[in-house]
Each structure stands twice: as structure tokens, then as C-alpha cells.
Amino acid sequence: MRHPMISHPRSSILAATVLLSLTTSPTALAQSFDLNGGVISESVNRHDPSVFDRAMDHFNHAQYTAALEGFDTYVQTPLLADAPSAEREEPRRLEAEYCAALCAVYLYHKDAVWRIDQFIDQHPESTWVPKLRWELGNYQYRRKKWTKAIDAFNGLTPRHLSKGLRTEFHFKRGHSLFEKSELSEARSDLMKVADDPSASPAFLEAARYYLAHIAYAEDRLTTALTAFEALLVVDAFRNAVPVYIAQILYDLGRNEELIERAPEWLGQNHELRNADALELHKLLGSALFYESRCAEAEPHLEAAWKAADGQQRTPEFSYIVGLCRLNNGHPSTAITALMRSTGGKDQLDQYATHAMGRAYLELNEKPKAQTAFETAASLDHDLELREDALFNQAKLAFETDFNPFNDAIAAFEQYLEEYPNSPRRDEAYGFLLDVYLTTRNHVRALDALDRIQRKSSPRKAGLPEARL
User: Are 148 and 137 in contact (CB under 8 A)?
Assistant: First the structure.
């Protein structure tokens, strides 16, 4: 039997992203930031008892809590009264505000963003402003506040960054845009990373992963497949990309290749996430189903079905599981799954109700089978399937115990009117002959008999009675 080609929703599991430890340490950023602008003093006079110098010493040793306390104390100390002294102190006060903001960022304090915003508002011309915007972007990026990270990165001018930081900038903004599903803009940033031969492997490989994902989301399946295949040899992604490759092979109808490769990914050499492994079982089972290998498909489909919640048991997946159960001789459990595929008045509904009719027949529940075939016959998405459903509905109307004849006559007459040249026309007229003989409507019985092209011996036996 033919089946509708079902594309499993690219759900849940294909939307998940690989979390990467790509954030430079706060200490490294503070001490090696390469931007045009002010420079944090690294030479510390340890014998200088001033609050500022002690705070800077703590800062340079990544003791940010003590440093923050010191810088805040220094900023809150009133300036000296005489103008020359106050003028000399002002640059240090500015640097103390700047370093205090950095400490708050590194400590993830709630007022970190406020401190940076305050500094930028009060000192918009400061050469430290670009550095703080960068730190703000990194802070929001680490917290996965993608929209806020994008806003902060958009405040920077990439050409003012060093080459290394420019690559990191494009990656982090591109990744943030990706997480917000702004794929076109994300692709533009990530391509700059992928095309940079000097990019660090971590950024380069991650950018290629997200670009592959974007190609997949945009239905550029061949491009995506090539990109994901290249990432199979990268340790950071070897366990993340098999489910993507399997989904693409399934979408492209390359079932045999999927069947050949999936067992290796499910083996001990790969450590897939549990959700990815279950999705791979579902795809492998579905591919085997479409290759008419339901016995082999069953363990994979049942593993995925058992772990799936109600939302994951989609009408498409339910149909495949139900029909596989039916083909494997489990009509009762087949009906349980198939019922989840009905009610949509679409092609899947027609296929599912037809299969339910078959399942009820195997259970000898003829009234329910008749109802299921009647529903399938009421839909015309697949005309061949509709013809079979209509014939079975008419046949069951004749065989059921309650009020059989009127329903049977109407059903067979409808079938013969719609399908006058059907290979089953003789069988249909044969049923009508039996109905008319049973109800002693000999005129119609004779008419039905005359319309049978190839008369069997039992049919010929009814000829004398009909003519009499």
C-alpha cells in the first residue's frame, strides 16, 4: 500500500544549540584589551597606601570584590579643595569609576549594567566608552540575554577593534542574532568569521556549525548536509550533528543511506544527548517503515514512542507507529496510535481512518470497521484509497446484522456509479445480486446478474431463480 510521504516536524530537538565555552576570562579581557583608547595602569606601587592604589592592586590580581569596595570608596571621597590638586585627581576618579564598573560586570552584580550606562552617559567622550560597551556586550552574552547583547555590540564600531577582537565581535553578535532567529543578519556576521583564516578554531568551527544550521532552517538542505558532514570530524560537534544529518537524509528521501549510517551513530562510539538519540530512533524507524521493513522498524519506533510526550506524538509520527503495528500483527495497539492521526480532514486523516478500518476488520469488529471506511471514503485526497474504502464500506454494510440491505444497496450503487470501470465491478454487482435475491427483488437481481461480465458458477446458479 502507498503511504503519504511524511516530513517529521523539525522540532524541538533541531532547534537546540551547542553551548560553547567561548567567553574570554574577565582578567584577560581587562589586561589585554586591544582598543584605541585609555589604558588601565598595570604598574602598581605596592608601598603606596592610597585607596586607589590598593584597589588597583586587588583589580590586577582579580580580587574584584575588594577592588570594587576600594574604587567605590575612592570615588565617594571628596576632591581636594585646591584646584590644581583636584584637577590632578580627576583622571584617577574617572579610572576608578571605569574599573568599578568592570568589577561589577565580572562579579555579575545587579548594578553592573547601571554602572556602565552611568559612565557612558556622564563621560560620552571618554576613550574607555568602547571598552565598556564591549564588556557590556560580553556580560549580556554570557548571561544569554541575546537582545541586550545585540544592542551592546551594535554600539561598537568593528573597524576600531583589533583584528582578533573583530572576529570575536562578529561571532558573538552573529550567535546572538542566531538565537533570536534573525538568520539573515546572523549569517552576515558568521560568514566574516568563517572566511577569516586567522580565526581561532573554537570560533571558526562554531561559526560553521551555526551557518550549517541556518542553511538547514532555510531549506538549503544540500548545503547544510555538506557543512554538517564536515563537522563530524570535529570533537566538539561529532555528537551534535548526526541528528541533523539523519533529518536531512530523511527529508531528501535518502532512506537507504540513513538506514546504513544511523546504527553507527547510535552505537557506543558516539555519546548523543538522550533527546537526539530518541529522535534518531524515530528517523531510522520511519525510514525503515517507508522501505517496507516494519519488523526492523518496530524497536526503533517503539523506543521513540515510549519516550515521547503527548505533544511529541504528532499525527504524522502516530500514523507511522500505528501502521507499523498493524503490519506487524498488533491491531489493537495500532488503533490506539492511529486515532491520534484522525480528525484533520486531510490526506493523513484519510490514510489513518482507512488503516483503522483494516485494524477493526482484523479484530472482527465490523461495525467499527464500516464506520472507519465510511470516514475514509468521505475524503478525496487519494482517489484510489477512497475507492477501496467505499467498496469495503458497502461490503460491510451487507455483512452487518442491523438494517443491512438498504445501506448495502445504497453503498454499492454509489460505488458502481462512481467507479463503473473498476476491476471490482463484478464483485460489487455480485453483492447486489445477493441482496436483491435475499429481498426477492428479482427484476433488479436479473439486471445485476446481466451486468456481471465474468459469471462464476454460483452466480450462474442464481440465473434460473432470477428469470423465474
Answer: no
* Mean pLDDT across 7-35: 46
- DSSP H stretches of helix in 382-441: 383-399, 404-418, 425-438
Neighbours of 259 (CB within 10 A): 20
Predicted confidence (pLDDT) at residue 333 exceeds the cutoff of 60: yes
Q: What distance in Å separates the CA atoms of residue 394 and residue 382, rounded to the nearest whole number? A: 18
CA angle, residues 287, 288, 294, in degrees to nearest 5: 140
Rounded to whole angstroms, what are the CA distances from 448 to 148, 403, 441, 456? Answer: 79, 21, 11, 14
**What's 43's domain CATH number?**
1.25.40
Contact 338, 321 (CB under 8 A): no
| 3-class secondary-structure state, position 308 | coil
Tally Cβ neighbours within 10 Å of residue 238.
Answer: 16
- Evaluate whether residue 426 is within a structural domain: no
Instruction: Answer yes or no: is 296 within a domain.
Output: no
Confidence band for 451, pLDDT divided at 50, 70 and 90: low
SS3 44: coil
| Residue 82 belongs to some domain of the structure | yes
Q: Is residue 108 part of a domain?
A: yes
- For 202-223, the pLDDT digits (tens) are 999 999 999 999 999 999 999 9
Residue 408 cell numbers, joined: 448495502
Report the C-alpha dihedral over residues 177, 180, 185, 186, rounded to 10 degrees: 50
Per-residue burial over 260-290, b = 16 or more CB atoms within 10 Å of its CB, e = otherwise: ebbeebbeeeeebeeebbbbbbbbbbbbbbb
Give the number of domains in the chain. Answer: 1
Q: Give the type of residue at 6.
A: I
Q: Could you tell me what percent of the chain has a pLDDT over 90?
A: 64
* Position with higher pLDDT, 409 vs 313: 313
Average pLDDT over residues 333-350: 96
| pLDDT (tens digit per residue) in 382-429 | 999 998 998 898 888 878 755 556 677 777 777 777 887 777 767 766
Q: Number of helices (H) and strands (E) in the chain: give both, helices first.
A: 26, 0
Range of the domain at 132: 23-156
- Amino acid identity for residue 46 in this structure: R
Per DSSP, the three-state class of 352 is helix
Residue with cell 517529521: 8
The rounded distance, in Å, linking the Cα atoms of 416 and 423 is 11
C-beta atoms surrounding 197 within 10 Å: 6
